[in-house]
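Question (not urgent): is this output format expected?
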Amino acid sequence: MPDEEDELRTELAKRLRQLRADAALSGAAAGERAGISQPMVSRWERGRNVPDPQQVASYAAALGARDDERDVLVGLAARLDEVREQNIPARVVLSRGAADFQRRVGRLEQGAARIRTFTPTVVPGLLQTKEYARAVFGAGGFIVGDDLSDAVNARLARQRLLDKVTSRQFTLLMTEGALRWMALSPAAMVRQLDRIAETADLPQVAVGVIEWTTAVEVFPMHGWDLYDDTAAVVGTETATGLITDTRDLLHYRQLFDRLEALASKGDALTSALARLRFEYASLR
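Got this back:
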């Protein structure tokens, strides 16, 4: 219920303000102690940004909150997370908060057993180097300064999931065109290709590239991420949509299967990446 969300947001902001007041700290001092910026403290206390439960727990501990105070704050943040998820429309919700959305996607990934990604024009986010991610988020100059750094760091934080040895499986597909889109210098693109090759060696990760010489009969207009059979994140030019409608999910699942059948993996992938690496290296 939207009313409950507003009430929870207001209550959490009020209690965070009181926590800092009880600690007799300025916003800058509280931020320094907790390892966040003063503007972020201010946004939390005004309810403009909402910290997740883990951030609330760390902040409360840094400001010396009692265990019972911390538990109340974390409980509010956790309930607010639940309500916000419930308020997402079944088909699509648009989001322009890049870092917040990255963290939301991270939570989807942590809760999924199988993650499938297709990107026609960019390297998948879970495979991007820091410099590539910065170029993507910074394109057009719409995300700058701390917001840009926050978005990049949130994306890189998601990548740590790839290194965890679990039963979770990743299938990450892209076109050769995405790798030929020279978003960075040739040397930086070589580093990006090396990052993809290294990740492809992980046992829980399957990476595929649809080479330009592969004949196709499918024409996807955009990229997407599938989380089990319960949700899909679809990127558009101006925003990002979260889809949970069963009909749409079936469509994206079937389309993904067709694309995966076209992709080069294993030794064929290694050869394709080596070929592209050689071509970029020759441009230096």
